[in-house]
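Worked Example 4.2. Consider the chain below.
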Amino acid sequence: MSKIQAAITGVGSYVPEYILTNSELEKMVDTTDAWITSRTGIKERRILKGEGKGSSHMGIEAVKQLLKKTNTDPKDIDLLICATTTPDFVFPATANLIASEVGATNSFSYDMQAACSGFLYSLAAASQFIETGKYKKIIVVGADKMSSIIDYTDRATCIIFGDGAGAVLLEPNTEGYGIIDSMMQSDGSGMVHLHQKAGGSRRPPTIETVQNREHYVYQEGTAVFKQAVVKMAEVSKNIMDRNHLTSDDVAWLVPHQANKRIIDATAHKMNLSDDKVMLNIHRYGNTTNGTLPLCLSDYESQLKKGDNLILAAFGGGFTWGALYIKWAYDSQA
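Applying the procedure from the previous section yields the following structure tokens:
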């Protein structure tokens, strides 16, 4: 019997309409368009506006597009995983809300929290369910409303993040296409450099934590940058070596869109030219769990059946990893 692998058979995405440009940020904090662009590569980011709209709103729209594009009956979905750092609620899971709203009433669902690496972790987890042969259709969503936990008086963080969501459909494949290998890693000691100070069980919300602005992203940029450059580049090169891939074999690097300099360093370590690197950070900023599926969505029309893709991410915690995919279809777009 041929080995079963989990193949991506469709991609959907959603970004909010509102565009927050660098020039607008210049009026909010002490920064400039030139400084933001040179340090991060970001020109604009999308922000979800509207009362009562959380990450599930974007995830729902991305999944609806995915179901329509792939002509999939939502009742045929076995499992829905939502990678998010900004869930609508502590509970229920954002994945539960998305599944219910899109009509995936026969699925079970859960959230994955691994900061910016969550979508990658979710793909690795979902592939195991497919490979058992028990599950046939799994949706993995990456959705984050980062604007809900960003301090727009902090020029170090507010320039980086945006809101957005993407989703992929995974199905069994026995022809050698799909998720071939994955390498996931973490180091909890990195927490001191990137975290949200309050809002969890260690420091529940109080008047004081709100007044002290402790419910926003806290980041020590230099320390995080150094670790991200090393770890994301290292794990990407390692998964290539483990699968005997050269730079000529790799069609695309799909990197987490945190900072263009980190992306460039990763591509350099892999000996890849710029035309093999998916890049949309200039349009969306860092959408955390949305970055990888948004890249796949934006570049879907350029992907060819059999293309070797390396997906890589680094996130708070610290979490990082890489995933090797052999693309399963030619786009009809």
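Residues 277 and 306 are 17 Å apart (CA to CA). Residues 221-242 form the longest helix (22 residues). Compare this with Example 4.1 before moving on.
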